[in-house]
Specification:
By secondary structure, this protein is α+β, with helices and mostly antiparallel strands. The chain has three helices and four strands. Strands 1-2-3-4 form a four-stranded mixed β-sheet. It is globular and about 50 Å long. It has a single domain, classed as Gcn5-related N-acetyltransferase (GNAT) (Aminopeptidase), CATH 3.40.630.30.
């Protein structure tokens, strides 16, 4: 995300927190945030084979390079625990090749069926 987009996203996050659909988790070391992650609860609606009304999306997962010793796993697990507390059964995310092993170790699986269309 470039610098011009950050205030727009920050405004959205603030509103989502107020609406109760975004939960953020952070780890602080030596007075600085060194890891964080967010969970967005989405009203999805029941679908074929899935009666759940909600899903969640894992976002903003970040760990400072000097602290990559399990902290990413800890903030992601906090998000997954929050999803379970909200009775959410499906959590989606986008990832990089570097982070994929972390998510796979937590049970995430790649979905060959997902497609995307960006409308003008």
């Amino acid at each position: 995300m470039d610098a011009a987009e950050r205030p727009i996203y920050a405004g959205w996050v603030a509103g989502a927190v107020e609406r109760g659909v975004y939960r953020g988790f952070f780890i602080e070391k030596e007075g600085e945030v060194v890891a964080g992650a967010g969970l967005v609860r989405l009203e999805w609606g029941p679908s074929r084979g899935d009666p759940q009304a909600y899903r969640a999306r894992l976002v903003n997962v970040w760990t400072h390079p000097d602290w990559r010793r399990g902290l990413g796993r800890a903030v992601v697990q906090a998000c997954l625990n929050a999803a379970q507390e909200q009775a959410v059964k499906v959590v989606n995310l986008s990832t990089t090749a570097m982070a994929r092993p972390l998510y796979e170790s937590l049970g995430f699986q790649a979905s060959p069926a997902e497609m995307r269309l960006k409308l003008p």
